[in-house]
Amino acid sequence: MARLAMAVACTAVLITLAVAGVQSQRQPAGTAHNGNAFRFNKVAEGVYHAVGTGALTVVGNSSVIVNTDDVIIVDDHVSPAAAWVLVDEIKTITNKPVRTVINTHFHYDHAHGNQIFDKDVAIIGHEFTREMLLGGKSLQMPLYKNYVTGLPGQIENLKQRIAMESDATRKAMLQTQLQAAQNNAASQAELKPTPPNVTLRTNMTLYRGDREIQIRFLGRAHTAGDVVVYLPKEKIVMTGDMLTSTLSNMSDAFVDEWVATLDQLKKLEFVTVLPGHGEAFTDRAKIDYFQAYLRDVWTEISRLKQQGVSAEDAAKRADLTKHKEHFSTITAPGVPLIAVTRIYDLLNARR
Ligand SMILES: [Zn+2]
User: Fold this and answer.
1) Ligand 1 mean position to 8 CA, how many Å?
2) Of 79, 105, 136, 138, which has the fewest CB atoms closer than 10 Å, so is most exposed?
């Protein structure tokens, strides 16, 4: 009887996932969570910005485009488990199948869910994104290495804090964080970076019913292969990490070229930005603020390098505090060492 019940339950799972584009895949480890893992913020008919609630570790945002017959996902988070739960929760907004995934760039928090999709799902990205994921570069990037090696310590720390916490509400919150961290670690252990199976070098347009979905490479920026997803009728653009609600990391950036690429972005007619991190926004002036920051960080770090200052010292001394009004993470002089190292490398390569 128990076996029969199990068989029925398994069939139910298969049926519900049969519509999702992952039906031939095994459910990954680490998908357990309490409550919804995503908020689907509706920004237009059939267009959603999916932001993590904290019930599961997802790191970046994704966007979901529901068309007449199918669903497109833009970016699929930090792990197979996060992508799996995204696909599962998409069923709360539609029963149409996921047939297309777009990777805005190769970074681990945007493309490490690719492996859960069936072979007939088109995973679209810039050819540079494919090259990087094929070559294992998303695993080799220092930000990812630090992220993964930090997980056991994070789990230990949470366990200690839970043991010492007496307030029931705070204890429950810490327990949610612990569960999310443990599940993330379990999913990272199963990770097999999977590259796009459809690539582009400049532009590609998908037509789905009445909807036009443009995938555009506007120049090097946060990486050498960022694409934005632009819906011209809805006047929405999904920008990955080329433009977020705060400062993007610069570990693979072309810091000075980024400014010109953002000029290309400004030429698109859009009202709403769905960024790879942070909430959706409509204030186009954010692009100007970010360009001003990029220009200044480039100039300031170049000046310090020219004076013979080491990257470590430049990271402490570079003063970008005049931008703190627009970027709340800037509280004192100093720039992340990863950005300084990148700028030094770019300058060295040009000598
Ligand atoms: Zn990124």
Assistant:
1) 42
2) 136
- Cβ-in-10-Å burial (0-12, 13-18, 19+) of 153 comes to exposed
Report d(CA 324, CA 332) in Å as an integer: 9
| Residues contacting 129, CB < 8 A, separation 6+ | 103, 105, 106, 111, 195, 196, 199, 223, 225, 227
- Proportion of the chain in helix, strand, coil states, percent, rounded to 5: 40, 15, 40
Q: pTM of the full predicted structure? A: 0.92
CA of 57 to the centre of ligand 1 (A): 16
The SS3 call for residue 123 is strand
In the reported structure, the alpha carbon of residue 284 is separated from the centroid of ligand 1 by a whole-number distance in angstroms of 21
Give, in order, the Cα–Cα distances in Å from 201 to each of 185, 220, 300, 316: 34, 12, 32, 38
